Amino acid sequence: QKGSYKHFMLKEIMEQPEVLQNCMRGRLLPDEGVIKMAGIEQHLPRILAARRLIVVACGTSWHAGLVGEYLIETLARVPVEVEYASEFRYRRPILGKDDVFIAISQSGETADTLAALQLAKQKGCLCLGVVNTVGSSISRETDGGIYLHAGPEIGVASTKAFTAQVLTLTMLALKLAGERGELSPDELKAKLHACSRLPNLVRRVLETQSQVVQMARTYRYASNFLYLGRGFSFPVALEGALKLKEISYIHAEGYPAAEMKHGPIALIDAFMPVVVIAPRSDTNYMKLLSNIEEVLARNGSVIAITDEGNCDLDDKCDFVIKMPEVEEFLVPLLAGDCL
Ligand code: F6R
């Protein structure tokens, strides 16, 4: 039931603080520096000995997988490959017993992801799932996994499931980082405490978006949008573009911000709004500022997503969406809510 909400998507957007809480409940023990994941615990030796993790998914779940790649490689230093299930299953991938396969799926029923999983299983990979729907086909075929606990997602586009997928992959990255000694016990505890503050921070993001109506009016006749981000935020830019396409029927492209100069810059003019995810915690924040200047020099309209304390962009951009300041690895969880 959608209760007092106008539609399911809005309800599911507003549920996100609770979803994050449910996803962490019983798993995250910040004071002890422990992350419990009952569904993968018995497979941990094989995961830790793996040559690489292969993450396979479609659509939004693939974007979450890309964020996971940045997180797991940066924090845990384990090689990760992310593939579209529809390509993976048909391209005779080279797989072995040393590989750990992770299927990501909200529904747990996507045919390409299921087929890719069955292929990986045949080749002897340990097969894990990051799935929302309990008892779904993908969850039944895997050797173990992590449920999202996001509740049913009815709306198009995916909202709370994407957030829960990214949080789950963040917890997995931190768990592997702790097990591999890439983070000291104190560093791990600090990062877990930072995660535990997320539900309140996301609530704040959702409560403070007063510009949405004005933005929608300003851009209602736009036929194209560009979304830019770097590092952890690059997959979030891809997801932003997908959401706009699905919901507004406006063509949109997501790009790594530095790639703009290799082609898309030719398209920028006053009729091309550009969304730039530019928090100051981004390792390449100064480069993002240059990207914004390049857009402005071509009369482009910039919508910046940045942190609350940042005033650098207030006078330059048409709209500045602010989110609480967090460490770089947590930015996708807040920026994703601003899209
Ligand atoms: C986008 C969206 C789709 C799904 C994709 C995979 O909002 O919903 O792109 O993400 O079809 O679906 P699942 O995650 O159920 O495998």
* Mean pLDDT reading: 96
Number of helical segments with 4 or more residues: 15
Overall shape: globular
The main β sheet shows up as: 5 strands, parallel
DSSP E strands, number: 12
Radius of gyration: 20 Å
User: What is the rounded distance between the termini?
Assistant: 24 Å
Short description:
It comes from Chrysochromulina tobinii. It contains 15 helices and twelve strands. The protein is an alpha/beta fold.
Which descriptors would you attach to this protein?
339 residues, alpha/beta, five-stranded parallel β-sheet, 12 strands, binds fructose -6-phosphate, carbohydrate derivative binding, Glutamine--fructose-6-phosphate aminotransferase [isomerizing]
Word description of this protein:
- The protein has 339 residues and is an alpha/beta fold.
- Helix content is 44%, strand content 18%.
- The chain contains 15 helices and twelve strands.
- The chain has helices spanning 8-14, 16-24, 38-41, 44-48, 59-76, 85-88, 111-122, 137-141, 160-179, 185-196, 198-207, 212-218, 234-248, 285-297, 331-338, and strands at 28-29, 34-35, 52-57, 80-84, 99-105, 126-131, 144-147, 224-229, 251-256, 273-277, 301-307, 319-323.
- A five-stranded parallel sheet has the order 4-3-5-6-7, sandwiched between helices.
- Helix 5 (59-76) packs antiparallel against helix 13 (234-248).
- It is globular and about 55 Å long.
- The two termini are 24 Å apart.
- Residues 58-61, 105-107, 110, 113, 156-158, 242, 246 line the site of fructose -6-phosphate.
- Keywords: Aminotransferase, Cytoplasm, Glutamine amidotransferase, Repeat, Transferase.
- It is an enzyme of class 2 (transferase).
- It catalyses: D-fructose 6-phosphate + L-glutamine = D-glucosamine 6-phosphate + L-glutamate.
